[in-house]
Amino acid sequence: MKKVCLIILDGFGLGAHDEGDAIFHARKNFLDPLFQSQKFSKLKTDGASVGLPSFQCGGSEAGHLTIGAGRPIKQFLTIINEDIDSGNIFKNPALVPLFEKAKQRGRIHLLGMLSDGGIHSFQPHLYGLLKMAQQFGIENIFIHGFLDGRDVGERSAKKYLSELETIGIGKIASLSGRFYSMDRDTNWDRTKAGCDVLWGRDEISNFKLQTSNGREALDKFYATSKESDYYFPPIVLNKDGAIAKDDIVVCFNYRSDRMRQLWSALCDETFTEFDRPFRLNPQNVAVFGSYYPDAVTAYELADPQVPYTLGEIVSRAGLPQLRISETEKFNHVTFYFSGQRKEPFEGEDRILIPSPKCASYAEKPEMSAREQTDALISQLAKKEYALIVQNFANPDLVGHGGEFSPAKKAIEIVDECLSREIPVLLSHGYDVLLFADHGNADEMFESNGDPCASHTKNMVPCWLLKSDGTMPQLRENGTLADIAPTALELLGIAKSKEMTGKPLF
Q1: Do residues 469 and 422 lie in contact, with contact meaning Cβ atoms separated by under 8 Å?
Q2: Nearest-CA neighbor of 121 among 1, 271, 253, 33?
Q3: CA–CA separation, 11 vs 66, rounded Å?
C-alpha cells in the first residue's frame, strides 16, 4: 500500500528574514537543511487561491478547506461582500422577516467582532446590517462588539470604533474582548463574562472600567494594562441595549468554531454550565454561517458540504486514513479538511490531543506538540494508513500572542518534533508532504515596530520527502489547491474532475 502523510505547519510563512521573522531566526536543525536544498515549492495561500477576495490574507479555515478539496471554495467573506455590493442583502429571505419583526418591536441587536481582519468577521458587513435596519425604520439599533487584537493590530480597536461612529447608525451597547466572547475551549467562565454584558449585567463584573464611551473605556484599559484588545474586559456601555428575552438578534461573525460556544449558552434548551436570566428563542436569532442550526441561517456556503475531497476519495478507494492534531486545530484537520463534514469517513481514525489551558500560548509555546508527536509515533507502530493528516498549531497560535521570543521558541519545538517523527514516517514507507496553510510567525512586528499578531500574505514552503530517501524538486510556485492532487498522484489514485489543483511535480 502506498502511503502519504501531510504535515501542516500552521502559520509558517516565508518571511523577509528581518528582525520580526521568528521562523528565520529560530534554531531549526531539521528544517534549515531543507531550506538550503532549495527544492521546495512556494504556495500561495491568500485571496482567490483560497476562495477569498483579492485583498484578504488566508486563514486556517479557508486553508484547510482548500487543501482537502483540491480547489478553492468561495468563502463567506466573498459571498457576503457580493451580496452587500449588489444590494441583495436588503432582500435576504432569512433576514427580512426578522427585521420586520424587529420593526414591530422597535429594537434589534447586532453582535460580532469589530475588525476588518476578515478571518472571523468583516466590519463592513455590520455597516450593511446597520443600513438595512435604518431602511426598515427600526427605532433602537444596538451593537454588541467583540474586540479583535489578533487578526489585526493588537491595540487597533479605536480605529474600528471611530469608523462605526462615522456611520452614525445605532448605539454601542457593550464591548468585550474575543478572549471572552469567542472562546472555543469550554472555558465557561469566559463565556459567562461575555454573555453577562449582553444581558446588561455589568454589576457582577470585577472590571472597573464603567463608562458609556467605548474609546474612553479603551483609554482606561490601555492605561492600566499591557494586554491587547483580545483581553479587553467585558463592559456594558448602554443598559437600555441589554438583550431581552424576545428581542431580535443578528450575529455577523461567519466563522463557526468560535461562535458555537456562545450561542449554546444563549440559546440551548438544555444548557447547564452557568445560570442565565432566560433562553433566547433561536428563531429570533440570525447567524452568518451555519454554526447554530436551530437559529435562522442568513448565509451559508454555496456548497455546505464539499464533495469529492481528498479524504472522501481515499475512503472510496477502501483505504484507511488518520487525522491527528491538538484541540486548537482538530476541527481544521477533520471538519474543514473533509469539506465541512462532521462525521469521519469510512476507514478514518482520529486522534485528538488536548491543548493546554492557559490565557495565552505565549506562556506555553510548546502547546501539545510533543504529546502529538508521541501519539503519532505510537500509532504508526500499531496500524498502517494510506493517508495521514497532521497539524502543528504552534506557529499560528503562539504567533497570535504577538511576542517574538515565544514564537521563536514555538518554531524550535516544532522543528524538534519533526526531527523525531519524520524519520519514523519515512521508515514506515510514508512519503511526507510538509507545508503550511498560511503565514503568521514570519512577521512578528508591524512596520512601525509594534507587535504583529495577525496572519500574513507571505507564500509558504512545501517539501516532498520520499520514503526512499530522496527529495524531488517541486515546481517553484503553486497554491494550497495543489496539495490534494499531489497526494493522490503519490497514492496512485486519479484526482476527481472537480479538483482544479495540479500536482506539484
Answers
A1: no
A2: 253
A3: 15
From the list 169, 166, 165, 100, the residue with the least C-alpha distance to 129 is: 169
Can you read off the three cell numbers belonging to residue 260? 458555537
Cβ contact 46:14 at 8 Å: no
Q: What is the pLDDT along the chain (505 residues), one digit of tens a residue?
A: 999 999 999 999 999 999 999 999 999 999 999 999 999 999 999 999 999 999 999 999 999 999 999 999 999 999 999 999 999 999 999 999 999 999 999 999 999 999 999 999 999 999 999 999 999 999 999 999 999 999 999 999 999 999 999 999 999 999 999 999 999 999 999 999 999 999 998 754 555 666 778 999 999 999 999 999 999 999 999 999 999 999 999 999 999 889 999 999 999 999 999 999 999 999 999 999 888 889 999 998 766 789 999 999 999 999 999 999 999 999 999 999 999 999 999 999 999 999 999 989 999 999 999 999 999 999 999 999 999 999 999 999 999 999 999 999 999 999 999 999 999 999 999 999 999 999 999 999 998 899 998 999 999 999 999 999 999 999 999 999 999 999 999 999 999 999 999 999 9
Could you tell me the CA-to-CA distances from 86 to 130, 446, 497 in Å, in that order?
16, 34, 32
- Measured CA to CA, the distance from residue 463 to residue 258 in angstroms comes to 31
Among 37, 41, 49, 60, the one annotated catalytic: 60
Which residues, 6+ apart, have CB-to-CB distance to 91 below 8 Å?
none
Which residue blocks in 87-122 are alpha helix, DSSP H?
A: 95-105
CA distances from 285 to 107, 158, 240, 311 (A): 13, 28, 19, 34
End-to-end CA distance of the chain: 21
Q: What is the pTM of this model?
A: 0.83
| Three-class secondary structure of residue 453 per DSSP | coil
290: annotated active-site residue: no
DSSP string, 272-292: -SS--S----GGGEEEESSSS
HSE-CB of 478 using CA atoms within 13 angstroms = 28
Cell of 226: 499591557
Q: Give the phi and the psi of residue 304 in degrees, each rounded to 5.
A: -55, -35
Helical segments of 136-259, H only: 157-167, 178-181, 188-198, 214-224
Question: How long is the chain?
Answer: 505
CA distances for 342 relative to 77, 211, 314, 331, angstroms: 22, 43, 17, 9
Residue of 481, 447, 445, 446 lying closest to 462 (CA atoms): 481
Q: Give the span between the Cα atoms of 390 and 124, in whole angstroms.
A: 35
Distance between CA atoms of 11 and 406, rounded to whole angstroms? 14
